[in-house]
Amino acid sequence: MRPRPFSRRALLSGGALGLASVALSGCASEPTGPATPSAAPDPDAALLRELIAEKTSVIALYGQARAPGDELRPFVERHETHLAELRRRLTGGTAAPSSPAAAASPTPGGSPGEVSLSRLRDTERRSAAERPRQMAAVSPSLAQLIASIGACEAVHVSALSRLM
Amino acid sequence: MRYEPARDPARATGRHPGGATLRAAAVQTGPADGATAAATGPHSATTGPHSIDEAKALDKALAAEHAAVYAYGVVAARSKGRTRRTATAAFDAHRARRDRLRGMIKSRGGTPPEAEAAYSLPVVPRSERDAVDLALDVEDGITAAYIELAAVNDPSIRELAALAVQESATRRFAFRPEIPTALPGLQ
Description:
Chain A is mostly helical. Chain A has helices at 8-29, 43-63, 73-91, 100-103, 117-134, 140-163. Chain A has a single domain (42-163), classed as Up-down Bundle (Ferritin), CATH 1.20.1260. Chain A has six helices and no strands. The longest helix of chain A has 24 residues, at 140-163. The interface between A and B is large, with 61 and 61 residues.
């Protein structure tokens, strides 16, 4: 096994290639009926779906937050970057180019100003704390992406504290 | 981060040289990756074909920590007040990481690489701003080194790498409260 140094671009496109194969194999297996009990789930795909749902919720949470000016916008944009990359990994680069924010539907009944910065910070902290555990069983390239996302979330904790 | 030893000063390339810092070796996910994972269960990452060489990645991370300890000695010496306190705390943190990595390499039967006597830094700080710039460069390099380490198969090493990346990115923010990228170590 040899180390394979690649640029970030190669990582992202490589990740897309890898997931493309996952998606293709998934498509190929669908006509054969339900998965057999012995078939193990793909840990990458399962976690990607989980992370996509989580990111969508976090972006929606930011949409309900109270903050002066437009100070939370960069936070949302970084989460949107994470979401876009996670979706790309899951779909093999064929995801519709829709705005991640548009896809993030706020909790019913939620409105701007209902979420405190403290709650956002706690959410970011919990997310960052989960990342090391989530990396344990996934592919090396997804482990790197999750580590990077966790680092961004950890910085968000510090950055939100400065806004409080 | 891998600053070149001082005996080869020609390799220093400027204030924030891409060539002087260790960038992450991002792992390319090959076509077999997903299939292998599906076939071998939840711990397939420990046998996956696209992980990087564990021993080399540990050595690189340790080399980066050696360089960080050296660089923070310079940063602390050329700064004052809050920057100096932050640099001193960073020095201690990187020294602790260095010692942990040494122990991990030894416990795996390896020989930890030693620190160079001196390193040719990308910039010799002449002001507080220079000192902070050097600290940011150090942390960017450390982040890249641990992102690379996150691709090894051993889950315990991955966990260490993930925590180290979070610490490094947060420490960078402590020196200068800006967030230049959504994907530290990869962008």
